[in-house]
Amino acid sequence: MRLQRLGITHILNAAEGRSFMHVNTNAEFYEGSGITYHGIKANDTQEFNLSRYFEEAADFIDKALAQKDGRVFVHYRVKATAFASYAGHKHLMLRQHMDVKSA
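Structure tokens predicted for Dual specificity protein phosphatase 3 (103 residues):
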């Protein structure tokens, strides 16, 4: 309910899963809320390559923000912080044609 009050329309979970290194939500968790969910099953380890999900995350963010009043909330764990930041910046640079400094 809090997310709805904040006007959140989309959730990007960059650490979907059930262990201590994940954010334990999924599409079923948001069912009936009117919030569109996208989960990435990423592990918060040095070995896990998050870069393969950058484009997917940027696409999800782009589609969300293209909607009238679209707002995205990103769930993440420690390593995924960099991912969330990069995905947001990549979206701004690729989709909004901003340079690195502006993004």
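The mean pLDDT is 77.
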